[in-house]
Design a protein that fits this description.
single chain, about 90 residues, alpha+beta, three-stranded antiparallel sheet, 3 strands
């Protein structure tokens, strides 16, 4: 399974109700939406921005982390990271 291509960005929800929508690049449209019902609007925005960074974080993990964890002492850490990525893709 593939994810919507990044980068993802945060935009105001079309309903203009205070919620935020995370959209993919190009014409991919909405990926997720945070709710305006959160008690703290700042928390709502931070959550949306965290979700929007998911493609960049996954790419970073693969390019800069997994390829360098080859020593036996890092095997457990690398396997855990691979399991996280596998869970995302399944």
């Amino acid at each position: 399974m593939r994810t919507t291509p990044g980068p993802w960005r945060v935009v105001p929800n079309r309903l203009n109700n205070g919620s935020l929508t995370i959209v993919g690049s190009g014409n991919y449209g909405a990926i997720a939406s945070t709710t305006f019902h959160r008690p703290d609007p700042e928390e709502n925005e931070v959550n949306a921005r965290l979700i929007a960074q998911a493609p960049a974080m996954a790419d970073f993990l693969v390019r800069h982390f997994l390829v360098r964890l080859t020593a036996p002492k890092y095997r457990t850490m690398a396997n855990e990271a691979r399991d996280i990525l596998r869970d995302i893709k399944s």
